[in-house]
Amino acid sequence: MSIRKQPDGKWLLDFYPEGKPKGKPSKRIRKTFSTKGEALAYQNHILENIHVKPWLNGKEDRRSLRDLVGQWFDEHGLTLDDGEKRKGAMLFACESMGEPLAHEFDATMFSLYRKKRLSGEIIRTSRVQQVSPRTMNLELAYFRAVFNELKRLGHWKSDNPLAGVRPFKSEEAELAYLENEEITRLLDECLKSRNESVYWVACLCLATGARWDEAESVTTKQIKNLKVSYFKTKGNRNRTVPISKAFCDALPKPERPGRYFKSCYSAFRKAVERADLNLPNGQLSHVLRHTFASHFMMKGGNILVLQRILGHTDIKMTMRYAHFAPDHLEEATRLNPLGEIYA
User: Fold this and answer.
1) How many domains does the chain have?
2) Among the options 115, 234, 259, 270, which is catalytic?
3) Are residues 246 and 193 in the same domain?
4) What is the value of pTM for the model shown?
5) How far is CA 339 from CA 321, 326, 334, 343, in A?
């Protein structure tokens, strides 16, 4: 067995776990690591598990991790809205980990891969040099789901290899929303756009809490009886939100049945720039949805009603807006140590 430092500073692990072959084929492992410690840890892991050979239908289970991902996608993943995205992320991970067999994949292997991804040693595209802890938490959830689902379907007999891996603790993202003056400024800039749809799509998002793509693609079948219905949404829940008669009457009606609006996302981006709105990364059009939810709660709206309007499957998502309620933690102003002095 051999661990050698390479000219590029990395360490090459090159050995035969079952001893050097004498006439018959034997598995050889060649992998590079950033440090000698990582190489030794991986070598010890292989040697400790050398006699663990899972069996499938009376034969040694030689399925690769890639095979399991493919089987999961064919029998379950293709039904998910983000199934292709999940599959792509996991296949990239399989390649980055050296195309391991399914029974070789464990917490140690994923942990090393995760460490390299976070440090920027492994990149998926030339545009992104590092990934966030949240991205790695998603990949952890993807792989866990694969083994859980295949176990339910009877295709995996062992325990979930990542059951004990904890996700990283990540900071709660800032939820920006627009004040009344900012809303007016933004809508004024939308009106100046040559694409007339951008103003009305923005208004529909603000009036119903819709995501941009939901509002932009709304059709004549979806707006009836002063209600807007959204189908096949992100949470796989259909939902209907009422609108005022004045707003419904003001909406420009298409000449024939079909879509109300043209594609106008790029026009909205330019309107945001002209309005000089300082928004967090990744919340360009989503700020409209946050604005609806925030103002809904500030005006005394019910959190459970808001959950139904937004279509959240988990109340925890909606609870992010609870602190906007007028009486939220109001006791803090009366019960703090200075309450009597500055009453």
Assistant:
1) 2
2) 234
3) yes
4) 0.65
5) 26, 19, 5, 5
In a domain, 338, yes or no: no
The answer on 201 and 125 residing in a single domain is no
Task: Name the residue range of residue 224's domain.
Answer: 180-324
Backbone angles phi, psi at 179, to 5 degrees: -80, 170
Express each pLDDT in 50-83 by its tens digit: 655 565 555 677 899 999 999 999 999 998 888 9
- Look at residues 134, 152, 170 and tell me which one is the last residue of a structural domain: 152
- Let me know if 290 is a catalytic residue: no
Tokens 């018959």 belong to residue: 24
Residues 7 and 136 in one domain: yes
Residue 24, classified by CB atoms within 10 Å of its CB into exposed (0-12), middle (13-18) or buried (19+), is: exposed
The answer to whether residue 194 is catalytic is no
The answer to whether residue 300 sits within a structural domain is yes
234 is catalytic: yes
Q: SS3 of 206, please?
A: helix
Whether 95 and 208 share a structural domain: no
Tokens 């103002």: give the residue: 295
> Which residue of the set 36, 124, 185, 211 is catalytic?
211
Active site residue 115: no
**Do 189 and 315 lie in a common domain?**
yes
3-state secondary structure of 60: strand
37 and 75 fall within a common domain:
yes
Burial class (CB in 10 A: 0-12, 13-18, 19+), 25: exposed
Q: Is 342 a catalytic residue?
A: no
Does some domain include residue 158? Answer: no
Mean pLDDT by 10 residues, the chain (343 residues): 83 79 65 86 76 60 92 94 92 93 93 91 65 91 97 92 91 81 96 96 96 95 95 82 95 92 95 92 90 93 94 90 80 74 68
